[in-house]
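Quick question about two entries, pasted in order.
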Amino acid sequence: MLGSRLGTCVRAGAVTAVAGLAAGGAMAAGSAVRAGAATPEVRAGAATPRAGAATPVPHRKPPDLIFHHGQTQLPLRIIAFAQSSFPNAARLAEFPAAMVHSDWLVHIEEGFGVPMHPAPIAHGFVVTNMPVIPPFPTSTSQLLDSWGEHEFRLHGIRRSLPSFQTVVIIFQRCTPPESLDSSGCNSHHPKFLGAGHGPIDAYALSLNPQTGSLQTQLEHASSVASHEVAEAISDTHLGWFLHNSDPDHPWVGPPPAVPNPHDPQGGLLALTGNESPFVQDEGNNNTEAADLMNGSRFYQTFTPPHGAPIRFAYQRVETNFANEHRDDPGVPPSPQAYYNVTVKSDWYGLPVDGSKSVTVTGWTNSTNPHFTWNVVANVQAWEGSNNTQAIFPAPDSCHVSGATHHLTNGAHFTLTVSAVPGQAKHDRWCVVQLKSMLDPVSTTGDMFHHWFVGFIEQ
């Protein structure tokens, strides 16, 4: 309802997770496991394989996140403002209440050491007066801080609670050339810059409505919002992330990648996640917990006290615990089989006048010996590809076939990357994404899983 408060986590409500996960009514304030929440990760026997899981062939795991010791975790207050013209605005205003009752948030809190007491707080509002993003670059704080403070006062909410981290979700349309924080219309999670806010208070921007049915648009918007909320929780100020400080030589470190004596194809192994090609997931030398699980989904249904059930989609998020103890680096654990590819090394040499071939092997924990998925390769990033200040960004110097490969557990194919004549130069680099997908793409679980391998032109 327009402008109405949607309540906090202590109110009545029900949550149902897909694929048979637990459901139930709201628990008392301060309970560590909230309404409908599955057994928390560290008490779920996560070191054991998923029930009924088969043994996958030997494989490497994605890099662990690195904690930078700048973020002190606090209990959560999650607030959403949905512009009335944004698709599903009224249902998205319920998203904070759904989130604080969700299995998803329990796993995020446990994965990143967020206190569960006191219990998280939720508010959600539909608004008609959210500032329109101007057709020139501006910052989120310049656009929304003053407006947000007015809305907080209007609804009787303190703009900051010193003992909580406040994350404000914004559902608003953005169309180029509109741009926030030099990020164009890409959703992101900028820190509050105005006075009177806590050191890790942040926005979580969900800016681009999806086309398709209303339910498709709802699930896209909530998934994007959960991605940014997760990264606001884990990395508003020097938290968990990977970063490469030398965009011209991302394999150098320190410490530099080293030769892999067990790779007959002559690759290099990154010694930390900062030198991994996974850092180039979004082409900007930086990656965070949700970025590492792009393409993943977790669905859970929430029933407001006086409304119909709403199925929201959440982005699954990598945690170091999940990565180290399961054949699935994401939380919440997926009720479906996990599948991906592995390559022996992180970086390979690529002759500037030739090509390089690398063996790619598929693996899965599916119990079905005939479980099959598709893999497609694309050049995800290259030196200069993210130079937003350049009038003419650097052209791609690598080429890879867009052929689709069909894999089962232990099957493999040869990935061949070619240098682009006239563009490839000594010490330039590119990163290839290997995207694994089911056919048809899942609508009840993860849409795809990715792996990255880098090539150094020499």
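Here is the second entry:
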Amino acid sequence: MHSFTSSLSIVLLLSIMVVCRADAQWTPQNPGAGGAFTSIAAGPTGILLAGSDLGGAYMSTDNGASWVCIGSIGSHSGLARSHVRSVAFAPTNPARMFLGTDDGIYRTTDTGVGFTRVLADGYTTAIAVAPSDSNTMYAAQSTSYNDIGTLTIYTSANKGATWSVYSDNEPDSTRILKLVVHPTDATIVYAVTGGDDSGINPFVSTTNKRRFERNPWLYRITNDGSTWTKRGPGGGADSVWDVAIHPINPDVMWATTRKDTAAALDKVGDVWKSTDGGANWTQKFHRTGCIAMRQDTPDTVRVVNVYAGSHSPSNATAGVWETLAGSATWSRRSYPGEGGNPWNPGWQSLEEAYGKSSYGIAPTIGQNMKSTGRDDILWVTAQFAYRSNDGGDTFANAFTNEVSSGPSKWLTRGLENVTVASIYASEGTSGLLFQGYHDLGIWRSINSGASWENVNSSADSLTGSWEGHGGNTTTILGDWAQPSIILF
């Protein structure tokens, strides 16, 4: 997603940092967000973890009001890579967390203060803990982030301290997006494979993207990893986007699919229910997206359409759809463009805010592991993070704070997977700063960085195909003789 361009301004900034006192306090000065966020989850006490492809992992202990970067390169926490593809928690110990990177799996037992690599090499796309036995874990790895290579599933019997091969005979040469362990039998694992209409991630070759897209299936893995059985709707032939299992009655499963033809991939699909562990399925509703099963009342099931809200927030299929316990009908709980109660997009426009993850449909939505009294839905997109504390009635941004309005000025909450490509300080106006980013375009501060204003313009097409919603600004230069003129 990002290209990395050196600029004189970055060199100068780094030079300034070198001569500063070692005990100087540095604070983030950017609007927040970035790209791309890869996954999100919440632990048993409500701690949030979000993975990113550049900045490592971010942790929040206050429900997304603020974030700290943990485990990034240079933080001396033991993480050797900053591309974090998957995150996971131990259900019985909130201090034990796991990060799946492009260099294996890292484990912390002190809430992110220090990490130890417990599984070397490989691109770890999914990690899951068995609900019935917290000692048992599973993880899926591909050879690298930009190639399919060999797919291997590993297992751990000691809370992720050590790992061994569970299965390396996956039949379709694809990538695993999600692992779900059977709620009462830790020897049974379900895997959602494949991708979405954009491929698994932007670094995979076009040929491999198409292969990923054609293999979005649901597998049931048994017999110590030796048996892979397709268990999706339509006898395993339909394209599966997401799956959820009832935590009390595991014979009940829900899946979402999309319609897929050889000519084109569309975004229309269905919600399916199985009452026999996935052997047979019944179509229940003509919508698709990610599944959010309420933890303390699992007969309440939500489907979040992570496609339709992007670019058309009032679309008839957009939003959160819900069926209640004992009900055979579905209703729309909320949608992004709902009058009088719009979802909060942060500094982005509503049309560009709510969408899918860049790394597959299934990782887009996360939920809170704390089951009692929580009804949270967590959401990461290619650039942003959002949260709902009311089961999808409303969503709020989790990456930025509006410092002032008219025009709006913003400051990060600490969730800032950004690459700064250029910085310019005005010679003629005190406190006037400009920053150029990959993906976020150009931003201006009139108060020495205390807050930032989005100055990307769609009217004059300064950001090209981004149409004012971001862009790549690699160079900013001011005219010293005419301080009001800025070139970028």
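Reply: The domain at 36-402 is CATH 2.130.10.10 (Methylamine Dehydrogenase; Chain H). The chain has two domains: 8-13+15-26+418-487, 36-402. Hope that helps.
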